[in-house]
């Protein structure tokens, strides 16, 4: 509960398990008397605690309707703590020494993964340097020598991918979500999201998402036109619906479930109307303006080599070089850099913890972006070295695969760490986490794709191709 914006936690009842091995024999009791102690300083509430009267309870073991008369009592006490410091006890809870140790361990594990990626990058640069020397030597010694490796497919590597409208929309939406995440971190680091500032994070997410819609429109339309796409209006609609569509459908279903259960989690009609107006009057016009600006930017796709008329056949590759195994490899390292911090975020969003260490979280986020970019580039190089030139979608899927790992962690958290049960809690948890993980998939996918595109342009721009 909340009182004067101060959160209160307490027990609604108890389960008597003493001397009973079978869960069907457990006895369930509901507390009907709550006692509040409120500390005040002049006309300001400073602190509140809640206690349940263990003796005033109702037996709910039998599944039948019970009339319960709930009661509460309040005791007021004066305190010298000033109003400005009333939130310190909440923010300090996440800064306790044993919690800080775990957060530092999270940073250390992230740095270790970063170093591992550094080794990958160093080895990759060495291999590339040898490739450049080898190809330069081949050009000088024998012009008619057959090309091998990634140089062999230079005429196909910049062949535009299938479903380029969808790829452009996904890159645009991912870029918008990445910008959104950076703005949210900036607000968090300057202290906007205090523990008691209820709804501030959700409000900021809705408003900033609407204001950054132009970024998605511009990025998607510009990239789509670079890929010689013609139907930019369809691409615009796809960009607008790619993330908002699944989120809207999930919200409608879950809000209906909450209304059916008469839960306070259901958003009232007025709030839904305001969100709809923000989307219709702010997000949509900005998306359209961004798309028009992107279409008119007349930017050309910068391919350092010419594309052949006919595509080369991709050689038969072993199973571990297929898309799904590569996605599993690409997602594991970035996930291992963030999984410790994930527990605290989940416990804050779906539990009773209060999370205030945004600086730690921001460092972990930066590590996540760097590791995703490096691992995707490394896998793209291995793919090109195997003479597989269809790297466009592969790089996006490999970059975004961390989102699938996070959803896998959701399953673990739900069954091993949370006490959630029932259809409403289950649907809320898995429904909204699916939207969050989908957002991560798009965001990290766009990071991986952009890193791979820069890398491929660089290596083919560094060699001489006929």
TrEMBL record:
Keywords: Endosome, Golgi apparatus, Membrane, Signal, Transmembrane, Transmembrane helix
InterPro entries found in the cross-reference section: EMP70
Membrane topology: Multi-pass membrane protein
Keyword RNA-binding appears in the UniProt entry: no
Entry's transmembrane regions: 102-124, 166-194, 200-224, 236-257, 269-292, 327-346, 358-384, 396-415, 427-449
Localization (cell): Endosome membrane; Golgi apparatus membrane
Gene Ontology biological process: protein localization to membrane
Record's keyword annotation contains Transferase: no
One GO cellular component term noted in the UniProt record for this chain: endosome membrane
Domain of life: Eukaryota
Protein family membership: Belongs to the nonaspanin (TM9SF) (TC 9.A.2) family.
Name of this chain's protein: Transmembrane 9 superfamily member
